[in-house]
Amino acid sequence: MTSLIVRIDLGDAGRIGPGKILLLQMIDRHGSISAAGRAMDLPYRHAWELVEQLNLTFREPVVARQTGGRKGGGAALTPFGAELLAHFEALKADTERAAARHLLRIDAALRTGQQAKIPTARKRA
What are the beta bridge partners of residue 105? Predict the structure, then answer.
């Protein structure tokens, strides 16, 4: 099935796409960066670096971290982070709706059951 990937280029600030969005969703669901990383099979250090990158990209932090204590640490989306996530998800849904009929046509044109092969020149006898 043909699909569309939404990724936003932020110029010199980098980009935000499916991986970072999934991380934000997992942080929102699990309440910690380490649990989000585990859910994505992502090393904690890499997850933490992505969160740090996001927090430095925007004027406001996207994720608020709470250091460990008696009940342990945690993380949550800031109000801005929740808004960013909602905007991305709405943009993705709008884009998928707008592209659906085109993707169906492209999907219908694909070869089925075999790899597309590039024709080679015939050898002259």
Answer: none
